[in-house]
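step=predict obj=non-specific protein-tyrosine kinase n=481
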Amino acid sequence: MDVRDYLHAVRRHWWIVLVTVMVALGLTTLVTLRAQPRYAASVTFFVTTPNQGVSEAYQGSIFMQQRVKSYVDLLQSDRLAASVVERQPLGLTAEGVRSRIAAQTVPDTVLLRATVTDTDATRALRLTEAVAAGFVELIKQVETPPEGRTAPIKVEVIGGPRVGSTPVSPQPLRNYGLGTLGGLLAGVALAVLRTKLDTRLRDAISLQRATGSPLLGEIPFDGTARTDPLIVGEAANSPRAEAIRKLRTNLRFVDVHEPARVIAVTSALQGEGKTTISCNLAIALAEAGWRVALVDADLRRPKVAEYLNLESSVGLTDVLVGDVQVGDVVQRWGDKSLLVLPSGSTPPNPSELLGSKAMADLLVVLRESADIVIIDTAPLSSVTDGVVVAVQADGALLVSQHGRTDRGQVSAAAHALQSVSVRLLGCVLNQAKLGKADAYRYESYRIEVPAARSAPSGQHGAFLGPDRVADPTQELTRLPR
């Protein structure tokens, strides 16, 4: 992942970062309020060598700096702590005293500083006084040579002991700063981890990579689509309707040299919106003047007739078994040049029926009777019906829903089509989360075309073949029983 991927992960899961920061600040507040205030008292020592000549100053300085470093351990030794307990019996053990003492040297000097921290300011000061007296005495005992000679090192107190009037801990500002930083880093890490572990499709780029095909459309999320799936009435001016029109335009120019006139619309899983897109795409094509035939070939869970409010008791299955002719059951929808062939009765063998010669003959008649044929097929992950239909079409359109489909499932669906040499025209991301700029509402834009108009001769688009009769139902009666 590069920097842009990290930023994208944080922007997508911003709520994780926010919640993590809030939790970190809450824990910081709890710790800060429950922490007992601690006070610090300090004392500074000066270490020197008495009776030192000028010629020995440099060597003496190096010797003293090295010596001072060892005194840090002496300040925190058990011996000094025991002597402090003897001097100031404050109810503390030698270990308790030693744990309260911290020592450090002042760099490049012979100064040594000791700090005593305690929850009681008075006790901290008294302990520091005892530490100062005890340390000076300890150095005399340790450094004094035998036979009464003068000690080569002398330690004097030059600063303190003194105690601060305000506690050194807790420090609310520092704690909140560290808590915010820690929460932010943890939130970013969780957001990136969630992005890596979440394999569901959430953007167009991932969908293109999974299918290996071009993105032909992004249908924005619309809360009213569940109750009003069709782009008619007020919905005709919605961003969703405009996205369908953009999909219509992109389909026309997928391959102008080899236009697809029979298109199978499918998906990896059930409930991704393939039927809605099939119906709306057929409506958009009919609005533009194309003669469109919409076939419901999802024989297991047909929805086309329900969405379009048409009779569905007799339809495709009845035509395929030879009970009726297609011209007798095809239904015109609205005032547009859109003919709909419902699924009909539910057969016991959908795959065999869709792969029969009768289905191939039906597609030949539909191809000659309409400019474009849209076939709504079954999902690819559960049954083979979709592949059986797609093989007989000029190409397939793969629909995936934002946040629902796994990348592996989409990739497997695309591979299932490509393994049988189905031409994958492209993919569509349904219920996409688009920004305000992408979801611009075209309030005044709508294509209005006379319902039964056919394209003029010699001006056919990528879908349109030779001129045919104005009424497609005259051609549909050619299918043999």
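step=describe
The mean pLDDT is 83.
step=end
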